[in-house]
Design brief:
Blueprint (H helix, E strand, L loop, with lengths): L3 E5 L8 E3 L5 E9 L3 E7 L2 E6 L2 E4 L8 H4 L9 E2 L2 E6 L3 E7 L4 E4 L6 E14 L2 H11 L5 H28 L10 H17 L3 E12 L5 H19 L1 H17 L3 H31 L2 E3 L6 E3 L16 E3 L6 E3 L40
Parallel strand pairs: 1-3
Antiparallel strand pairs: 2-8, 3-6, 3-7, 4-5, 4-8, 9-11, 10-11, 11-12, 13-14, 15-16
Length: 372
């Protein structure tokens, strides 16, 4: 077994920790710890002594813990059975976090559950080396920067992410679709909420940033939310009354252009009726600017006051009248029943000779017989 005489780690930027690959380190070996590094002796999953920057000769005289680790003599030297871990004490920047699957959040403005995806970055610094190594090696079994990054993301950041964003939206009363305006604020709030979690692992959370919060555009709830937002903006521009009238016109236009049964009904006459109704609504909306209107007695279309013929159906605006045979109310000449008393306006037949009688006749003009 070859004994190792020099133990060191020349770390690259962004690397968090390094486990020296050999455990046959000789007594009197040189342990070189670079600036912003710390070396920790580990044995059987337990952190022992640690050394800061500098060149250290592994002797029991200057490192008391070694006396407990030295076991069998080996060629005049003693093999060193503990593992050595190096950690980088500088800031580890640009670590990534992000949702693997969309998470559902309730929009506080429109009360619609919407799936979101969120992404960002964070940076850390190791403050308590032993606490960090105990968690990373003993619990997480994470020996590389990539493993540590993914473990922090999955076990520390993401479990709190939905609550973090939901709490911010509720406090600010902001819809999910406008979160892009608040990335900085969400990052500051998020950092404050998870600082203690990082500290419990011996880490300082130096930076936490939100880069993107987006929604699946094809999701039906997202489409509903976007429509609600567009409608709200349109109401703000047009005003409540004009917006309602526009929606009515849009509905009529959609019905007029529809296929199938509705289209057939429109072709059979519904189109005319709805067109007349639309004309009436437009006339009513513009009535204040154009003066009083007259309603056609045949098709109910709005016409200018004093018009003799309807501009929509062409029929005469004045309808001939007659008296109800029972109550004498003035009613349209072609009425079959009186709108006042409900009596039939149709003539009857003589009870004696069967001759046709005028409505309300008390004697037959043919035989003179009294009726009723």
């Amino acid at each position: 077994m070859a004994l190792i005489d020099v133990v060191e780690w020349k770390n690259k930027q962004g690397e968090v920790l390094y486990r020296f690959p050999e455990n046959a380190i000789s007594m009197a070996a040189q342990l070189i710890v670079m600036e912003n590094q710390e070396a920790v002796f580990f044995r059987e999953g337990r952190a022992l002594d640690s050394l800061g920057p500098g060149r250290h000769t592994l002797k029991s005289g200057n490192i008391p813990i070694l006396e407990k680790l030295v076991n069998l003599p080996f060629g005049g030297k003693s093999p060193f059975p503990a593992e050595v871990y190096f950690v980088n004490k500088t800031e580890i920047p640009n670590l990534k976090w992000g949702t693997k699957q969309p998470i559902d959040l309730q929009d506080p403005v429109y009360n619609i559950a919407v799936p979101i995806r969120a992404f960002g970055n964070f940076s850390i610094k190791i403050k308590d080396t032993k606490a960090f190594l105990t968690m990373a090696i003993g619990t997480w079994q994470a020996y590389t920067t990539e493993a540590i990054e993914s473990t922090i993301r999955d076990q520390v950041i993401l479990p709190k992410l939905s609550d973090l964003i939901a709490e911010f939206m509720l406090k600010q009363n902001v819809t999910i679709l406008k979160l892009a305006q608040y990335y900085n604020e969400i990052g500051v709030s998020g950092k404050a909420n998870i600082l203690d979690d990082f500290a419990s692992y011996g880490l300082e959370l130096v930076r936490f940033a939100v880069e993107s919060i987006n929604v699946p555009q094809e999701d039906e709830s997202v489409k509903r939310l976007k429509k609600a937002l567009a409608d709200k903006a349109e109401i703000g521009i047009m005003g409540q009354d004009d917006y309602k009238m526009k929606r009515t016109f849009d509905t009529m236009e959609k019905a007029a252009g529809s296929d199938g049964m509705a289209g057939g009904m429109m072709g059979a006459g519904m189109g005319v009726g709805m067109g007349q109704q639309m004309a009436g609504m437009m006339g009513a909306a513009m009535g204040g600017a154009q003066g009083a209107k007259a309603v056609c007695p045949h098709c109910n279309a709005q016409n200018q006051a004093g018009a003799k013929f309807c501009a929509s159906c062409g029929k005469e605006m004045v309808v001939a009248a007659m008296a109800c045979p029972k109550c004498n109310a003035k009613i349209p000449a072609n009425s079959k029943f009186c709108p006042e008393c409900g009596a039939s306006t149709a003539g009857g037949a003589c009870v004696k000779c069967g001759a046709k009688l005028q409505p309300g006749a008390k004697f037959c003009p043919e035989c003179g017989a009294q009726q009723g």
